[in-house]
Amino acid sequence: MRLKQRYEKEIRKELQKKLGLKNIMATPKIEKVCVNVGFGREVAGKGSSDRQKIAERIAEKLGLMTGQKPSLRKAKKSIASFKLREGVEIGASVTLRGKRMYEFLEKLIYVVLPRKRDFRGISLSSIDEQGNLTLGFKEYTPFPEVKIDKGLFGLELSVKTTAENRAQAIELFRLMGFPLKENG
Fold first, then answer.
1. Torsions phi, psi of 115, nearest 5?
2. CATH code of 80's domain
3. Theoretical Cys-Cys bridge with 131: which of 14, 31, 148, 169, CB 3.0 to 4.6 Å?
4. pTM for this one?
5. In the predicted model, what is the mean pLDDT of the chain?
């Protein structure tokens, strides 16, 4: 909760000043964090009981990482070349808001990103024109609460902001403590 308190007491006022906004309610903030895992490749061609075990194992680990139970996503249509049938669970996702979101972001900034192998900062190209940040992890090993075993999987993380443009989002992420690279 320290990140949320810091945002409300310090960062918001500093953002308002830096961006030249008249109303404090117009300052950008983080709206939600979405964490997604696709396990289609791991379950392709497996029997239904094996698929279910893999899906449950990955969902359990994602739940440990985020502190919230993930929802499983199913394939919308069959694709023969991917050995995929309609209705088979191929992913899991978690949307974090409020208190859990700030707790997850705090852990991400101060624990997970520094533990990431060969990490030199978040590239500015990870922030899109709408002010949203997207990060990819090739494996879940930087997350300290998950025990590492067979079947490493990657995950994708999106941070949605209320920023009107990319420049506002970059300033928001910098003030919140995200380790952004200086030049791209």
1. -85, -15
2. 3.30.1440.10
3. 169
4. 0.83
5. 82
